[in-house]
Design goal:
Layout lengths: L2 H28 L3 H6 L2 H10 L2 E2 L1 H4 L1 E8 L6 H4 L2 H16 L5 E5 L3 E7 L4 H9 L4 E5 L3 H18 L11 E2 L4 E3 L4 H8 L2 H6 L4 E5 L3 E3 L2 E10 L4 E2 L3 E8 L8 E7 L1 H12 L6 E5 L2 E4 L11 E5 L5 H13 L6 E9 L1 H54 L3 E2 L1 H14 L1 H15 L4 H33 L3 H31 L11
Parallel strand pairs: 1-18
Antiparallel strand pairs: 2-4, 2-17, 3-4, 5-11, 5-14, 6-7, 7-10, 8-10, 9-10, 12-13, 13-16, 14-15
Helix pairs in contact: 1-3, 1-13, 1-17, 6-7, 6-12, 13-14, 13-17, 14-17, 15-16, 16-17
């Protein structure tokens, strides 16, 4: 056997083995039962998932959100680049949230498209994405002064209407916090927003709600008398880590904060001058926690305690704080969810179309070109195996349009072999030997095959460059498929023919 043929055999065998090894992870992962996933070691399951072919939103389910950035309250200078900044912050949040293969893209002037494949907890994802996350550190006013304000409001209300119900009867005080029960939330909310109530508040102070707690089955929400101006803001945060174990509760949920070098001295001064007072951690005008300052904190390390919240709540807050605050509020203007059942149906239908398309082409080639057709069939099956392996190797996401691209590749991948086989037939009609006809057929068809593949590949590049979402998925599959089909049609089939005709006594081949 000639040295050149040995190298070609080695290259083809290596490609086939590597493709099968790569596809092994895909086959193994998507055939796992839920029971098996639970019993597997997490690192082993993650490794298998990372190497498996990834499915897009339309195939595995998930959610698609379109956000609109509200720039109405921004100055012209702030408006410029606000959407781009929001996009990067949202992308960072999603990356830390752990969604596989998310797609975050700008749409037009003030919209952002977000695709999250495989997301189960949709509400949690929406909260994480849409929260403005303006973190502020504010000083809480004295309880005595707040009690005076409540009493003063009730006196004024009674003077105007002797039948009016005072808010003191709707607010409980436990010596530490002021609490409101759910049936009074709306009433208190409307009262603190009135001009009458705001007029009796001291200058520089306001009233904010805290996080709702549920103790012994009784829900309630704290109300805080608090300074309007922040003594420190969220840009002071360098690191935020979720965890458990607070000073008063070993199982309590918390977020540990590490401040920047510049903010540490400020925090040391703030805590030093407010020992014995409470400093609130305010996120988007809601008090997350309000601990008492026990001593001056020079290190810049502090903690947000989160009461009866879950560790997921703490993780989400830490993600938001690390990723930063959005430059402007965002609102969801469109939300579409693809359930896993619909995604599963799409996969089944897509696989069915691929199988039917493949079978029809295989049968046609076998009938029309006899044994040579089966060589082309072998190359076509190998083409599909290598294509899927390459997609999974490079972490590409297979979408429904991508499946359409595979069906198209199946139909067009045999074009090269059709050209070659027809040229070989012509050469054999001229009385050439089998080996000479095969060599001449490949040589004369090569230019036409190369031109056709190059032009189609350029089209795929253009679709990928200018397209979005599904168009890109189609373009990726088409582009990789063209390269792979060129390899199988030119290299693999030629190698098989050379192996079959290496015996000089071969005088005829059915084609």
């Amino acid at each position: 056997m000639r040295t050149g043929m040995k190298w070609r055999i080695l290259i083809v065998l290596v490609v086939i083995v590597l493709a099968l090894v790569q596809l092994y992870y895909t086959f193994s992962y998507y055939t796992l039962t839920e029971e098996k996933k639970i019993t597997m070691a997490p690192n082993e399951l993650d490794r298998m998932k990372d190497k498996a072919l990834k499915l897009g939103l339309d195939l595995q389910g998930g959610m698609n959100i379109i956000l609109e950035v509200d720039k109405s309250n921004l100055s012209p200078e702030q408006s410029r680049g606000a959407v781009d900044r929001a996009l990067e912050i949202i992308r960072n949040r999603i990356d830390q949230f752990g969604v596989s293969e998310p797609r975050v893209e700008k749409m037009g002037e003030d919209r952002i498209s977000i695709k999250l494949p495989g997301v189960v907890d949709r509400q949690r994802a929406k909260d994480l994405i849409g929260k403005t996350a303006q973190l502020e550190f504010r000083i809480i006013g004295s309880n005595e002064r707040f009690q005076e304000i409540i009493s003063q409001y009730d006196e004024n209300a009674y003077k105007e209407d002797s039948l009016a119900m005072g808010i003191a009867g709707m607010i409980d005080f436990n010596g530490y916090d002021f609490f409101v029960y759910p049936e009074n939330y709306a009433v208190i909310d409307s009262i603190i927003d009135t001009k009458a109530f705001k007029n009796i508040l001291p200058a520089g102070y306001t009233v904010l709600w805290g996080r709702e707690s549920d103790k012994e089955g009784i829900a309630k929400k704290p109300l805080f008398f608090i300074q309007k101006n922040a003594v420190l803001k969220g840009d002071a945060i360098l690191e935020a880590r979720a965890g458990t174990g607070t000073q008063n509760n070993p199982m309590g949920v918390k977020v540990d904060l590490v401040m920047t070098r510049d903010a540490r001295s400020q925090w040391a001064s703030i805590t030093g001058s407010n020992v014995g007072k409470r400093i609130a951690f305010v996120l988007d005008n809601r008090v997350m926690s309000a601990p008492v300052v026990q001593e001056r904190i020079p290190s810049g390390n502090t903690q947000i305690t989160m009461g009866n919240s879950t560790i997921e709540d703490a993780k989400d807050l830490s993600i938001i704080l690390k990723a930063g605050a959005l430059p402007a509020p965002v609102r969801i203007i469109e939300e579409r969810s693809v359930g896993p059942t619909l995604g599963s149906d799409s996969v089944k239908q897509g696989v069915k179309s691929i199988i039917w398309g493949l079978m029809l082409v295989l049968v046609f080639m076998g009938i029309y070109y006899f044994w040579s057709g089966f060589i082309a069939d072998f190359a076509l099956v190998l083409n599909l195996v290598i294509l899927l392996a390459v997609l999974s190797l490079f972490g590409a996401t297979l979408t429904l349009p991508g499946m359409a691209g595979i069906v198209l590749i199946i139909g067009t991948a045999v074009d090269a072999n059709v050209l070659i086989f027809e040229r070989i037939r012509e050469e054999m009609k001229y009385g050439k030997t089998v080996r000479t006809a095969i060599s001449s057929g490949y040589s004369k068809a090569f230019t036409a095959i190369l031109d056709a593949n190059v032009t189609t590949f350029i089209t795929a590049l253009i679709l990928y460059w200018f397209g979005t979402g599904p168009i890109k998925g189609f373009a990726i599959t088409l582009g990789i498929g063209i390269v792979v089909s060129f390899f199988t049609a030119i290299v693999v089939t030629r190698l098989v023919f050379d192996l079959l005709t290496r015996n000089k006594n071969v005088k005829k081949i059915r084609i």
